[in-house]
Sequence to fold (266 residues):
Amino acid sequence: MLSEKDLQSMTMAGLSYSQAKIYLTLAIVGQTSIKTIAKAAKMDPGNTDRVILSLQKLSLVNKTIGKPNLYEAIQVKEGVEILLKRKKEEITEITRQTDLLLEHFENRTYSIPELHEDQFLIIPPKTSYIHVSVNSYNSARKTIDLVTTYKRSLQSRDIYREPQLKAIQRGVRIRVILDTSPSEISSDEPSLLKTGSPNPERRFVRETPKVVGGIFDGKIATFLVNPAADYLASPCLLTNHAGFISMFQCYFEKLWSSANPKPEQK
Fold:
């Protein structure tokens, strides 16, 4: 008697449900005709014939010519070994093909999605946000104004250090507002708090900013949907909407004017 668990195991090994049903039924019944196997498996004889042909092509069923022709399943252990070998070969081929795909796209530049006038785009979390942010750094020519947190700065330091340096070398003025306190400052990260060349200008606020994001050349702005989330865990809103950018710029300037050049205790 076939169990659903046995059938499921065979489908996981690579057979269709019908193939698994015919193969295991043959393994139980032994050598027999299409008519008998169809009856035992409770399947249409025409469909049974097609399924057995496919099993023959997989080398799981042997045929004895006669009147009628008789069919016999190979040992289940041997059948499973054949199927698992095919699975491994498929995985190897999939790995090879995906490696070629990654190689093809590895050196392609991820461009900032094209924004139409006063448009908003939601950028998914993870790597898409990194690509958009790095491109924003690379595209900036005059100013970059950022509001972030000390925690996020630590998490993203290796990603943005080079784009920041290149922007500064191009003459871009970078201002960063951070929330932090001396108790949070890691002893091995003093560079994060330094101002002046070749570092961005930095100022500090006591409270965690309610808005986290950046303004690039006053033309493009990014806002994190969930500012409190860990780095890359939140989607990002990308916009060129003049009104929103103006409001964000006003917010930034007000925060910047009241911020301190050195971190203070919360």
Remarks:
- The first helix runs from residue 4 to 13.
- The mean pLDDT is 85.
- The first strand starts at residue 61 and ends at 64.
